[in-house]
Write a structure and sequence with these properties.
single chain; mainly alpha; three-stranded antiparallel beta sheet; three-stranded mixed beta sheet; 15 helices; 8 strands; 7% strand; flat
């Protein structure tokens, strides 16, 4: 039994030894293979490192070459800058020398001027002393005499200069003004509408006159009181006259009477009913007419009150000229002028259309149409140029833009053209007399005559006491005084005439 166990142990030991040596051999072979692979990988890594190192050397070399080129460029720039600085330094030195030379010359001139000033004072003193001795004048009297002579001479010289440049400005101004006016007047021909103080209503028969008068004059009194007009019924067959200075009231009254005559029922109650209806119709009609004007001119948006007042201007006249026709004429002329002068055409058109808007309310409110119109437009948010044009077209302000100036010019053109307006004889005579008196009040004026319906004045002066240049200054003085003291439409031309006449006799 022991033998068997011993044999078994010996067998196991032998097997274990064989297994150990076999395993060690296999492991040795495996480690040998891993070592070979590791050496191969190390060799590959070493080769790759050599390649990368070679590339790094190439890049470093390229960078060195690039930096060398950049360095050479900078060196060249520095050299160029140094050369420029050397040239600038030379120029500066030359300029400094020239400046010193100029400064020296200026000092010499100042010394010379001081010397001349001293000589002048000495000469004046000697002259004054001689005048005192020769003319028996004191120093103060001699000074006054000299100053008067110098002033006369200077006035003549100034007048000559003014005359020269005024002529140049006049020629250039006339060319431009004529061009603008020609463009404006050729593009727009204004329509003239002259209103009378009466409207004539034709009746179907003379018996309607009795109906209009009514029992004990009740109907005609009711009509005149309600409508605010005078109704004239005379012996003229088939017609009656409606008279009023207010075109709007006159138009309403005419329409009311026409409806009453057509209807046949004429009594105070019916008169009030028809009047209320016609008044409403006219309000709607005036707004519609104003709206059509604004649409036609392309000036929307505009406040409703301004639109209504525009339509109402159809029934307003100034010096016999229809206010709406005048307003449209001014607006279109102003648009053309603004376009020629490089301004805003639409703004000039709007300012021209609203420049007299206050006239629609003057008969109801009283006061200046300028202030009323400016307040209206300011309240309804109109452009500042529109408000300035309202003030400027009557001289309350100076035009502050091309558009305002165009409106002022167009207003004068529309008002001053022949036939546009009628004037009261008394006011015309008074104005002409004032203009002549202003001219006759000047020194050396012999005669003065207002001609061309008061739009021109001819002033005859003493040729022995006034020179041509002084005549130019006199015309300016007269024109300025007329502008300040006289109210007139359009403009007044002042002609100063200096005439020399020589007469001799053959015996």
């Amino acid at each position: 039994m022991l033998g068997i166990i011993t044999a078994g142990v010996a067998g196991v030991s032998t097997g274990a030894a064989i297994a150990y040596f076999w395993t060690k051999k296999v492991a040795k072979n495996s480690f040998s293979h891993i070592g070979i692979e590791a050496k191969a990988k190390a060799k590959a890594i070493e080769n790759e490192a050599d390649i990368l190192l070679e590339k790094a050397h190439v890049k470093i070399k390229e960078k060195e070459i690039e930096l060398e080129g950049e360095f050479q460029k900078r060196v060249a720039k520095v050299d160029e800058r140094n050369r420029t600085l050397i040239l600038q330094t030379k120029e500066f030195v030359a300029e400094e020398n020239a400046l010193k030379l100029l400064e020296q010359r200026v000092l010499e001139k100042e010394v010379h001027l001081k010397k001349l000033e001293a000589e002048k004072k000495e000469t004046i003193a000697l002259t004054v002393e001689k005048m005192q001795n020769v003319a028996s004048l004191t120093k103060d009297e001699a000074k006054v005499y000299i100053l008067e002579k110098v002033e006369e001479q200077s006035r003549a010289e100034v007048a000559g200069i003014v005359r020269k440049y005024e002529q140049i400005a006049k020629e250039e101004g006339e060319k431009k003004a004529n061009y603008i006016l020609a463009q404006a007047t050729t593009r727009y021909a204004g329509e003239f509408a002259g209103e009378r103080l009466i409207n004539i209503i034709t009746l179907p028969s003379d018996e309607h006159k009795g109906r209009i008068i009514g029992k004990e004059g009740r109907n005609i009194k009711s009509l005149e009181m309600l409508l605010g007009v005078d109704i004239v019924i005379d012996e003229t067959p088939g017609v009656i006259l409606v008279s009023s200075f207010n075109l709007y009231r006159r138009a309403i009254a005419t329409r009311v009477i026409e409806i009453l005559v057509e209807d046949g029922r004429i009594h105070p109650g019916r008169i009030e009913e028809v009047h209320a209806k016609v008044e409403t119709e006219f309000e709607d009609k005036t707004y519609e007419e104003g709206e059509n004007i604004v649409i036609e001119l392309g000036l929307f948006p505009m406040h409703e009150e301004l639109i209504r007042l525009l339509g109402r201007m159809k029934y307003r006249a100034s010096y016999g000229q229809n206010a709406l026709a005048h307003t449209l004429e001014v607006a279109r002329l102003a648009r053309v002028m603004a376009a020629e002068m490089g301004g805003d055409e639409k703004l000039a058109l709007r300012a021209g259309l609203l420049h007299d808007i206050g006239k629609a309310l003057t008969q109801d409110m009283g006061g200046s149409h300028v202030d009323i119109g400016a307040d209206l437009c300011r309240r309804h948010g109109e452009h500042p140029t529109v408000i300035n044009a309202i003030y400027a077209h009557h001289g309350h302000e100076e035009p502050d833009s091309v558009e305002s100036a165009a409106v002022c010019t167009a207003d004068k053109l529309s008002a001053a053209r022949p036939g546009a307006r009628r004037e009261v004889l008394e006011s015309f005579t008074k104005r002409v007399k004032e203009v002549e008196e202003i001219a006759l009040g000047k020194s050396y004026v012999n005669q003065a005559y207002a001609i061309n319906a008061g739009r021109e004045i001819r002033v005859f002066v003493n040729a022995q006491k006034m020179s041509d240049n002084e005549a130019v200054l006199l015309s300016k003085e007269i024109a300025k005084e007329i502008q300040e003291k006289v109210q007139y439409p359009g403009e007044i031309k002042v002609n100063v005439i200096r005439e020399v006449r020589a007469a001799s006799y053959a015996k």
